[in-house]
Write the structure tokens for this entry.
Amino acid sequence: MGASTYLYYLAHPNQLRALLQWKIWHTPLHERNPATEAPTLRRCFEFLKMTSRSFATVIQELTPELCVPVALFYLILRGLDTIEDDMTLPLEEKEPILRTFHENLDKPGWAFTKSGPNEKDRQLLVEFSTIGEEFAKIKKPYREIIKDIARKMGNGMADYANNAEHNINGVNTIEDYDLYCHYVAGLVGEGLTALFCEAKLANPVLLERPHLSNAMGNFLQKTNIIRDYREDLDDGRRFWPKEIWSKHIDEFKDLADPKNEEVALNCISEMCLDALRHADECLFYLAGIKDQSVFNFAAIPQVMAIATLNLVFRNKDVFQKNVKIAKGEACELMLEASNLRSVCAVFRKYAKKIRQKNTPKDPNFLRISTACAKIDQFIESIFPTPTDPAVIARQRQLEATGETPEEAALAKKEMMMLIAAVIGTLSVISAFMIFLAWLAGARFDLAFQDMKGTLSKVANLGEAQAPASMTTLVAETVTTAAHVEL
């Protein structure tokens, strides 16, 4: 860590505390036991860590019923995405692979070795037979769900690969933008929802409202697209819809020109406004999750997304580099995303921050304020503002200190444990140094004798002075008595 990082955490001690809590004391709800797994399954989890460390962590903490199916689901879609992103494959070869990818899941030993040598996840496709072998072992309903999503996504990717206008000029309309996000992220939400409901760990009503799972995926994808402006621009890609950016500037690349800072900030605020329209539906979706590990899995990416959206809102750095929330803040969010009320509090907090950064100079000032108010209104409908004085006092303490009384008590307990640990450490070090001094020949017996002699002298001196003191005390007492009689 650099000096700037140390200074940051000195200014944000709560984030430092959350970082230490997550790294040292976090206990997963569920843990894998690699010793009991087949070599092929262990290899699948190795691929999971290689492709995405953040997703690997939350997936491996899922309930055992869903841990492997969700891990395989992620790896299969990652393989599909790798083929779609590979610019070394000619379209006439890429299109049929994308459209038939789901069929290859049932072919023993199938793998793909024609990816370009520089593709980051090429090895995943080279060893895809390992994934296929484990895929054949999971329950049939899970296999059917995963195959169906792979079919829909593969066909959607093939359609975009065939779209010359998209390949040259990127996304044009907001409708196209929504459709693209649906194919690359909304379908993932649809598949995960089907898996959750099949395992009876989510309310089946979610299956009847596919727009909710689509909103979950779209909110994440749109936030990432906004954040990745610089990276995509450097790679020659454009995912911001022309319908939005053309209102502010003539050429997409000119948003990065510092001379266009004000219009660029107005443009990014409109992109954030488009993403915010999915926020309340994400909270609605989370209300339908029954299992704690599944809730954590679904909620953590969403709180990360709203925090990132706040970070990129009217942030000129987005046009020059890839910005990310601090690790301490991320750990704080992961610790907070344990129940719906806490997640709503996180959304409300960051919506308030976005509203505070909103400016009347922005053409979308009123619409952004309304979108943030809509989030507040939805949360109010789930968790109404209390009227009980005790609850109000509790909330005021939370707003003033950032901690509930229980959290404050826990913090005090942790502080006492920390002080005890420091004292214990110093005691052990002192004892060790005394032991080393003894080994080196130090005469503690002589030191104790000198100390004893000094104490004896002090005691004798006190005894010699005691009679004089006693005489003085008696004289004062007699004098006092005489004054009383007079």
Remarks:
- The chain has 24 helices and no strands.
- The longest helix spans residues 444-485.
- The CA atoms of residues 259 and 316 lie 11 Å apart.
- The radius of gyration is 32 Å.
